[in-house]
Structures are given as C-alpha cells and as structure tokens.
C-alpha cells in the first residue's frame, strides 16, 4: 500500500522522470500535487503497471490532482548538459508550470538539484512508496510514450513503437544499418564499443 503523503500538513508535489536510459528522444518529467485524502487501489509505480492501466489512470490523476504538470528536455539539451542534469531540469520545468506552489517536494531517486527555496526529500524507489510520486511516474511515462509513438511514424526502422527508444537489439541493429537520427542522443553509447557512426 502506497503512502498518501510524507507530511500531513505541507502541500507536497511528487516528481519523477521517464526516458532517462533511452538512446533517443527527450527525457520527460512530471510533478503532481494530490489531495491528502486521494486514494486509488490501482495507482502504483508505472513500471509495475500495464500500458492499459497507465492510460486508464492518467485521466483519473489529472482530474483529481490539485495541480500537475509535465515537461521535457530535448536530446540536444541532454547532449549539452548530460542526462542527470537534464533529468533535474525536466523536473524543474514541470515544477515551474504548477498552478499551486508546493511547500515540499518528494523526488524519486537519490539525487536532486535544489528547486528555489522549497525543501525536498529524495526517496529511492519513491514511485513504489508514495502516491504522488507514483502519479508523477505515470504521467511522465504516458506523455513520453505518446511522444515516441508519434515519432515512430517518421522513423519506423527503429521500432520505437515497441522499444520506446530503449537500446533493444532491434533498435541498435537499425542504428548500425541506417545511422543515427537527429533525435538520437549523440553523447550516449548508441552501439557497443562506440562503433563509428555517420551521424545525420
């Protein structure tokens, strides 16, 4: 059973990202403020849910949240500032968009770059511990999946509709055969042993 809150008084925003380990596309992040009394028996870490369950939960989260926002950081920005900083930036951008200002942040993971003067708590595997982080994980994941699915229509060779730009064998084989697209993260090891690519 996931916890409803970290502090029963403060306005808390749960934050999580999606796509950090992918070879292409942006990293997405979401920030969600849920009512203290919110509960849903299905809500859990997005990785433990099916695609159908995530899609079903997304409108429930959006309709019941006090505030929510989703933001992204592009592949080009990831290459410039590295994926860790890009993940922090995506969370900051999501927090910037919240219509309610949180008094406390619950961050999935063990590191975070301070956001304004709002205190934060880094919680390892927080998306499996707190409802607001789980909700953020679902929004970040579903919004990114929608983005990647649309991108797949223009780049079908890479099988992004199935691998969501993770480094599967089929994805890497396509990179080897067709090269990297403008959406690939050039700072990542796109192929084993850093084989030389003709980057487009």
Overview of the molecule:
There is one protein chain. With 200 residues, the chain is an alpha/beta fold. The protein folds into two domains: 141 residues, Ribonuclease H-like superfamily/Ribonuclease H (Nucleotidyltransferase, domain 5, 2-Layer Sandwich); 39 residues, no CATH class. Helices cover 36% and strands 15% of the residues. It has six helices and five strands; from the N terminus they run ββαβααββααα. The protein has a five-stranded mixed sheet, with helices on both faces. A hairpin with an 8-residue loop joins strand 1 and strand 2. Helix 2 crosses helix 3. The longest helix has 22 residues. It is globular and about 55 Å long. It starts with 11 loop residues before the first strand and ends in a 22-residue tail after the last helix. The C terminus is likely disordered.
How would you describe this structure in keywords?
single chain; 200 residues; alpha/beta; Nucleotidyltransferase, domain 5; 5-stranded mixed β-sheet; 6 helices; 5 strands; disordered C terminus
